[in-house]
Design a protein that fits this description.
With 154 residues, this protein is mostly helical. It has three helices and two strands. The termini are far apart.
Length: 154
């Protein structure tokens, strides 16, 4: 090639008969093109083989890493909840703690309500106030509790 690192070739053939010259140059060019095609096909096959092998190795490594990750998550107590893209990692102990905290908050609110009710009734009794509204309020709660218990729901 005249220019380095290119695929350009120059063919010259001198012969008194122009048809013979054209035939020889055409035959050499055909042979060269067949050689280049075979070379590129072999190269492509080899590259495809190498890439396929690497892909299989990487898939195997990925599978091993995913199994290792799942094993570690189960050891630590992390579970996957949700599905698809919306999956979240949830630590089992953190979820239990959250639920216990909600229950504690609810219990604290009920205790504060009961304490306020008790203090209001105590104040009404001590000062000779009307306790009828408190009795009605307590009757509503107690009546509902008894009714639910009788139905087997409480």
């Amino acid at each position: 090639s005249a220019a380095r690192l290119t695929n350009v070739i120059t063919l010259n053939y001198r012969c008194p008969d122009p048809e013979t010259s054209a035939y020889v140059v055409g035959s050499v060019l055909d042979s060269y093109l067949k050689f280049m095609q075979a070379t590129h096909q072999n190269s492509s096959r080899e590259t495809l083989g190498v890439l396929t092998k690497e892909k299989l190795e990487l898939e195997s490594q990925l599978d091993a890493r995913e199994r290792q990750l799942n094993g570690l998550k189960s050891q630590v107590g992390i579970l996957l909840t949700g599905s698809g893209v919306d999956r979240e990692n949830t630590h089992v102990l953190a979820e239990r703690t959250r639920k216990l905290n909600l229950s504690l908050t609810e219990a604290v609110e009920k205790t504060a309500d009961a304490r306020a009710f008790y203090e209001a009734v105590t104040y009404a009794v001590r000062t000779g106030g009307d306790i009828q509204p408190f009795v009605m309020q307590a009757a509503d709660v107690v009546g509902r509790e008894v009714f639910l218990k009788e139905l087997g729901l409480g």
